[in-house]
Amino acid sequence: MTRKSLQLGRAVEWPKTPDQAKLDRVPNPQRDTNYLVRFTAPEFTSLCPVTGQPDFAHLVIDYVPGPWLLESKSLKLYVASFRNHGAFHEDCTVAIGKRITAEIKPKWLRIGGYWYPRGGIPIDVFWQSGKLPKGMWIPDQGVAPYRGRG
Question: Is the pTM of this model over 0.85?
Fold first, then answer.
C-alpha cells in the first residue's frame, strides 16, 4: 500500500455510512513480537433502527497485530460513520469487530461494546476473533459495570 492511498495526512470527506468508510492498514514493523494494541471510543453513537433515537456506547477494541496495524485516523472516520446509521447494539459491535478483522487480519481481536441504557437496560456486547497467543497479558477493558457509566 502506498502512502498516497492512506487517509492519514490529508483532508478527506467524512464517510456517510459504515459501508462507505475506508479502513487503512499499515505494515507492522514488530510483526515477530506479540503485543497488545487498544483503541477506545468512549463517545460512540449510532441510531436505533426502530425509533431513530440516538444510542451511545463506550467501545474498547483490543488486538494482537499480525502483519498489519490499524491506522487510527481511518478508525476514527469509520467509527464516526455510524453516527447516522441505524442498527442494533449487537450488530454495531460485531460488525465493527468483523470489519477490522477482515482488514488487518490480527492474530487475535476482541471488542467490548458497553452500551448506555435504553428503556432502563444497559446492553454490553462482546465479540472476539482468533486465538490469543500464549503468554499474552491482556488487561481488563476498564469499563465498570453499569452504575451510570461515569
Answer: yes
